[in-house]
Amino acid sequence: SLGSNIPNDRMHFLIQQLYENNICVVAAAGNTGKSVGINTINYPARYSECLSIAAYDKNGKIAPFSSSGDENFLSLP
C-alpha cells in the first residue's frame, strides 16, 4: 500500500483522470489507528474518487492499528 497524511496534488489529479475514465482506484486506509485523531485515513484513500479499505480483526471490528473514518468503503481481514 501507498500512503501519506499529506495530500499530493499530482497524485490526486491522476486519480481523478482514472475515475473519469471509469477505472476503479482502491487504496489502503492506512495503519495509523486512532492515535492521531478521529479521521486517520491516509491519502490517496482519503480522496473521494478512491475506495478506502480498512483492516478488521477476528471479531469483525476495525482493527486497532487500522486507519478509519467516514471515507471507509469497506473493511477486510
Topology, pairings included?
Blueprint: H1 9-20, E1 25-28, E2 50-55, E3 72-76
Parallel strand pairs: 1-2, 2-3
* Adjacency order of strands in the biggest sheet: 1-2-3
Number of helices: 1
Tell me the β content: 15-25%
Mind telling me the C-alpha Rg? 12 Å
String of helices and strands: HEEE
Structural class: alpha/beta
Largest sheet: 3 strands, parallel
Low-confidence regions: none
What's the gist of this structure?
By secondary structure, this protein is α/β, with parallel strands linked by helices. It is built from 1 helix and 3 strands, in the order H-E-E-E. Helix content is 16%, strand content 19%.
Please give a structural write-up.
About 15% of the residues lie in helices and about 20% in strands. The chain has about 80 residues and is α/β, with parallel strands linked by helices. A 3-stranded parallel sheet has the order 1-2-3. The chain is globular and about 35 Å long. The model has no long low-confidence stretch (mean pLDDT about 85).
Annotation keywords:
77 residues, alpha/beta, 3-stranded parallel β-sheet
